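Why do we bother with holo predictions? Because pocket geometry can differ from the apo form. Keep that in mind while you read this record for pyridoxal-5'-phosphate.
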Amino acid sequence: MNPLPLIERLRALQLVLQETPTVRLEMEGVELHAKLEGQNPVGSIKDRPAVWVLKRAAERGDLTEGSTIVESSSGNFASALATYARLLGLKFIPVIDPNITPGYESFLQRTCEQVVKVTERDDMGGFLKTRLLKVRELCASIEGAFWPNQYGNPDVVEAHYWLTGEEIRRTFKTLDYVFIGVSTGGTIAGVSRRLKEAFPSVQVVAVDAQGSVIFGGPAGKRYIPGIGASVKPELVNHALIDDVVMIPEHETVQCCRELLQQHNLLVGGSSGSCFAAVKRYLPRFRASATPPTVLFLCADRGTAYLDTIFTPAWAARFS
Ligand SMILES: Cc1ncc(COP(=O)(O)O)c(C=O)c1O
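The structure, written out:
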């Protein structure tokens, strides 16, 4: 038997989420900052909604000692849930797809009793619909199943409002632009709401992958996990977005390498995409009377992408 009730163990877990660092990058004509969410305990921004959503569910009685957590994730949310579920003594079944990086897959195989991998692409060319169908199927067949539903759960927005967004607000006196990668839309929804309250003139730039349908573009094959989706997630409707920048994956690769070689940051694909979007904005930044204060989110570390984005033979598919 666990000594403390589940809700108390969850509240204690929230305390392990310390503030993540924000670092300054040298770039002419802009005061550029990167927030390193890869410094969260399990390695990504998804630590925040993972703990918050479980805590809220336990408070409502939807998550109990006998629950089995079932969730669809391309890597980071599943890794966070896997770690925290283990610490809480709960069972977790991640539903993944072939785009998952080998490092994440092997981590999940070692931390979860059961991992379900779908292999069929959906009608949009991605795997999201197939994964969600599998989640529903599993939930229907398991007694006490709990689906955090990172694509539509308002608790995810709340997590980013009170944790990620609030932290950014405390870090800056003023903020002119923030660049945020989008997949479920949870991060941009929570962060944009908190930042627009604190800095009413801040411009929120959503960063998505070419081939993703979130902002109405045509569906296409994508290889890099993190941002993008093959269906429009509900949570995006809660976000306050001023502009959208679509980044092709070859540019993501190039920018990840540039962040490593010129700025000593080993960060993942969505960070590279956000940096690519920042670079597209440079002429605008340089045209302003004073360099604007700009932040981009680095949602995870680059270590999980060493065999993909950072391996020239793998990245050759984009040339
Ligand atoms: C590395 C990375 N960046 C960005 C995102 C997008 O965050 P959100 O799902 O909150 O839109 C994700 C989501 O999984 C991610 O794993």
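The chain has two domains: 6-40+157-318, 47-146.
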